[in-house]
């Protein structure tokens, strides 16, 4: 039996499994089995965790399809919630989490203990790198966007309609085409950005290894990067995804971006 905790951040859900609990398992196969929505526990991925100190740990993220991802901002925050409960963290405490994209420091802003345990966390997401790019999809349609790295790859597309369509095509279709495009040999996450005001944007997300998702921490960071650096938005920026809002604070190119949002523990169990 494999013990797990299930958590979510704005509807982006993850299982947290310790390396000890997963010892002897093929992590990719285990992830595909447990993340299956109809035949498993159901999740967007598994964060495999090991403590490295009293308030620090390391994680390895496998997407729902078993592939390895460098980092998930929401997944990292879910792990921070799990660590906060385990260590009885208080507001102001900092939890350091080593990811494949580097160490992320997570400051606990608030702790909520009720029917579920949840926290508000601000995470240092590193210094984003970005460059303009045009991707040509089947039919010869050219899709301009901003290629952004927040420790993992993103392609951000500006849209001007509430349906997030691009050239008359649904955003889910465009996202799938660009995610697996030959221009991105390791695939890419794809975000669609709609500006509501200089202080607020709305997004949709097609996540590499998962598909359409309700939220993404790194996707939120990437779209905020595009909105602030290229499209005239200001910091702090409210970023609204289907799963709820998060807030990004960023001073601009060359500085670290900070992401603030909630995470909640919602279930514990054992699986075969």
Description:
The termini are close together. Strands 1-2-3-4-6-7-8-17 form an 8-stranded mixed barrel. It has 2 domains: 133 residues, Roll (Diaminopimelate Epimerase, Chain A, domain 1); 128 residues, Roll (Diaminopimelate Epimerase, Chain A, domain 1), CATH 3.10.310.10. Helices cover 17% and strands 47% of the residues. The chain is α+β, with helices and mostly antiparallel strands and 272 residues long. A hairpin with a 3-residue loop joins strand 9 and strand 10. It is globular.
Write a brief caption for the model.
With about 270 residues, this protein is an alpha+beta fold. The chain has helices at about 25-35, 75-85, 170-180, 215-230, and strands at about 1-10, 10-20, 45-55, 55-65, 70, 95-100, 100-115, 115-125, 130-135, 140-150, 155-160, 190-195, 200-205, 210-215, 235-240, 245-250, 260-270.
Write the layout of secondary structure elements.
Layout: E1 2-9, E2 12-18, H1 27-35, E3 45-53, E4 56-63, E5 68-69, H2 73-86, E6 94-99, E7 102-113, E8 117-124, E9 129-137, E10 141-149, E11 153-158, H3 171-179, E12 189-197, E13 200-207, E14 211-213, H4 217-229, E15 237-241, E16 244-249, E17 258-271
Parallel strand pairs: 2-3, 4-6, 11-12, 13-15
Antiparallel strand pairs: 1-2, 1-17, 3-4, 4-5, 6-7, 7-8, 8-17, 9-10, 10-11, 12-13, 13-14, 15-16, 16-17
